[in-house]
Amino acid sequence: MKKKADVLVITPHPDDAEFGVAGTVVKWVREGKTVVYVVCSNGDKGTDDPDLKPEELSKIREKEQLKAAEILGVQEVIFLGYPDQSIEDTPEFRKDIVRQIRMFKPEIVVTSDPYRRYLWHRDHRIVGQVVLDAVFPYARDVWAYPDLREEGLRPHRVKEVWLWASEDINFRSDITDTYEIKLKALRSHKSQIKESFSAEMEKWLCQRAKDMAEGEKFTLGEGFYRVEIFW
Description:
Shape: globular
Strand content: 15-25%
CATH architecture: 3-Layer(aba) Sandwich
Oligomer: single chain
């Protein structure tokens, strides 16, 4: 079955995309664009509860991610199922990402910035780097993973890459009218955003959105390092 997405959001863990790009996702959906999520890890380490087993947590987080995606209008969520904190830059993982890019043929790929300095979750760093490598040159080149071509997954050229959590922002997206939906989607991740932390998180998130809109004509924003690809 042929699949197509205008935007492919490739996220290390369930909930990362909601923090990084959810307001912009709603904008894209309202514009008629099709958005698909690819969630790389199952999030099975994301708890401070020693009685909550990893296999149970991964199921909870999958349901939370599906609910958040539904709120945002995301068409489909692909779960690759890699263990949390165990993602590595391997040919196999890169091939999994190339497969998704060739399958959905997006114009835009969104992921976490791998070049954030000092303290940064290793999964975020590796996923970001592997996605960039997958976009260029692997998804594009005819002799990269020829077995994928034999499966009918032909090479594809992505037009733009957007990186969230960047320290080198060159593009700010207006989410003034979509911020509340972003917040609603984030609240779906109840295993991650405890009630005791929710008010503090929302205060931080709102301030960050205001900071991302500084100097612009809008009030709330999301910031990215945006790369346009011409080759």
